[in-house]
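Worked example

This section walks through a single chain of length 312. The input is the sequence exactly as stored; nothing has been trimmed or padded.
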Amino acid sequence: MINKLAKLLLVLILTLSFAQTSLAEETSSFSDVKAGNSHYVAIQYLKDEGILDGYENGSYKPNQEISRAEALKIIAVTTGKITEEELENTVLPEKPFFPDVRSDNWYSKYLFVAKDKNIINGYPDGTFQPNSPVNLVETLKMYLECFDGISYPDPKAYPFADTGTESWYAKYVAYAAEQETLNISAKNEIFPDQKMTRGNFAEIIYRLKLSAENNYKFGKATFYGKAVQGHGTASGEKFDMNALTAAHKTLPFGTIVEVVNLSNGKKVEVKINDRGPFGPGRSIDLSSAAFGKLASLGTGIIVVQYHPADSI
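Given that input, the structure is written out below as tokens.
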């Protein structure tokens, strides 16, 4: 009798385990992009929007570098700057428009239309190097050149440690910084020449899109707790580490903000009642209770998106 009960219990455990595994698989966009991946929210959103495709085996390969041609195609789809109808009606010229692009390449029409619309120009030697990895500032340029009438801020207002304010990409970097869509290191670096992985690329496209359409902001979130429990805040309230509050540099006191952990999609709403943080790349300081809703306190720093909750 005991053996029968033990067997039934084992079957029940295995069944529940299988059900939970199946549910996790169903809610993941790709087999290799699950909650905990730093680009989880971005990739999930772009997949749901029909912007990203994976491989036949169900993977996305987020750590694999993405080529300039692949990047251009995704940007064209995301922005709607190049339509399927345009591609169907495009007749390629007999003479190569880039010496390293053949008319039978899968991306040839994308590149031809993009060049005609001044989205891309190629390198000084006339080539485009379609199969080379795309870097951060090339990604910014291709994406932003898909839109007319963008008002670019003065690059001198965003003097990053590793970018020149007179460089060819300065205005694109300044715009992305103004919109709070860049990852900024503690040393105030953005690594402009970094080669984009498929995960990093999805992340920057997601941020640019959501920033423009919904005014979402992005950055690092930290927390404060016991050390300042009961101390005064900039709003005059006493700090309570158990309350769902946060510090922000400019948002009005009392603003309710939705904060989302980009690695797992967990959300929390907080009230702004203090000022800070002030380190490079840091956007919002959460109470320990609020941070705990998004990640374990041991994580220390997480990357988030945030937005006033009453205007989402």
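What to look for: Confidence is low (pLDDT under 50) at residues 5-26.
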